[in-house]
Amino acid sequence: MHLISLFAHPAFLLHQWVKAMGLGTTYMLLFIAIFLETGIVVLPIVPGDSLLLASGVFASISGQLQLGILIPLLAVGAVLGDQSNYFIGKFLGERILKSPKWKKRLSSKLSRSEDILNRFGKGAMFFSHFIPVGRTFIPFLCGISGLPWRKFSTLNAPGDCLWALLLLSIGYFCAKIPFVKKYLGLIALIAVGCLVLSVLVSFFKSKKKEGKHRGKGRADEGL
Predict the structure, then answer these.
(1) Residue 75: which domain range?
(2) Are 102 and 89 in contact, with CB atoms under 8 Å apart?
(3) What is the DSSP track for 118-185?
(4) Does residue 6 fall inside a structural domain?
(5) Residue 94 dihedral angles phi and psi, to the nearest 5°
(6) What's the domain count of the chain?
């Protein structure tokens, strides 16, 4: 029941959260969360799209968070996150990929991101934050490849700002639609369910792929 309450009354709960920690701390935690979402290649832990949409919704229905503060603040968090990943790739990328532990964990995502980058080039750098896998790994790959920082930043930073602007605004203005406002709890539960389902599907796909690689490796050893 507590979980249902969490999504059924987001405005009330946000009010309690802000009341307990203060607006400044709330803004800071949102900034840190967006930064961490792409700032550390080995730690892609935050669903940034969902967080931005939820922040926009909360700002709209609670009146406590301000859209005019959220947009520049979280856009800067996204830009700095990508900058961090670019420099991690530039200075530590080869060392990370030489580690069997990290290579195994990151190889499939890096491979998908590399394919996106090769196919779409500049477009992939601009829209990297709109791509769930690419937002973490495309900046990292750009750093490893030796792409000049100025070229990367010129293409990437405007895309990050557009990402924050669009998703926060969508959440903010959709929350004002009567139907959305009335069924916000149900919509949030469905969104969370879809998120959990996508994580589970991705997990089982990766396990299946690992199983195939192991089977192929054993077959090669037999030969």
Answers:
(1) 2-186
(2) no
(3) HHHTHHHHHTGGGSTTHHHHHHHHHHHHT--HHHHHHHHHHHHHHHHHHHHHHHHHHTTSHHHHHTHH
(4) yes
(5) -65, -40
(6) 1
Dist. CA 139–CA 129, nearest whole Å: 10
Cα-Cα-Cα-Cα dihedral sign, residues 138, 93, 99, 45: negative
Q: How far is CA 2 from the centre of its chain?
A: 26
Residue type, 102: W
Structure-block tokens of residue 69: 């503060």
Average pLDDT over residues 74-85: 94
**pLDDT range class, residue 5, cuts 50, 70, 90:** very low
Q: Which of 78-82, 116-120, 193-197 has the lowest mean pLDDT?
A: 193-197
From the CA atom positions of the chain, what is the Rg in Å? 20
Residue 52 is assigned to a structural domain of this protein: yes
Dihedral, CA of residue 115, residue 118, residue 124 and residue 125, to nearest 10 = 120
pLDDT tens, 100-147?
777 676 777 777 778 888 888 888 889 888 887 778 788 888 888 888
Q: How far is it, in rounded angstroms, from Cα 97 to Cα 100?
A: 7
CA 67 to chain centre: 19
Per the document, the length of the chain is 223
Number of Cβ within 10 Å of residue 31's Cβ equals: 18
Backbone angles phi, psi at 67, to 5 degrees: -60, -35
Asked if 171 and 53 count as a contact pair (C-beta separation under 8 A), the reply is yes
Amino acid at 25: T
